[in-house]
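Researcher: We're teaching a course module on how sequence relates to structure. For the next exercise, students receive a sequence and then see the predicted structure as tokens, so they can try to spot secondary structure elements on their own. Here is the exercise chain.
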Amino acid sequence: MSSYIAAKYFTKKYNDLSYEQIYTVTKAFSPRNGDMQASKTNLMLHPGAAIEVDMYSKDNDIVSIGAPLDDNKHGLTGFIDDGSFHASAWLKITQSQFRNNCRKAAPNTKFVFNDNGDYETNASLARGGIYHKGHFYKVYTR
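Model: And here is the predicted structure for the students to work with:
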């Protein structure tokens, strides 16, 4: 089986991972669901959690983040586990939540985004890739 992927997704604009950065949560706060509604499940990000921030999305007072896995080990609680493959969730926070509760993570702070333990760091994003099973892989092709 093959699928068509538009050529634009292989351009530097769409594949430069440096537009994503890892931040660390410094104070507990409640993020919003993707539609900016308050969570009905008491979502909470806890101090020490690593989040991935989409640096393109900081407009209209909204910051789009990739929150860590909901396993209490990586710092997010309250996400509903539907039994499917665990991956990080995209959530929204306000600019003030971002400014008051987050700081840029150290270069090698791990943002674990799936059950396989695959992760990104600010250092790997700057190099355009992720770590899978302990090995570095570049994500975009030319």
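Model: If you want an answer key for the exercise: Confidence is low (pLDDT under 50) at residues 1-5. The CA atoms of residues 111 and 123 lie 11 Å apart.
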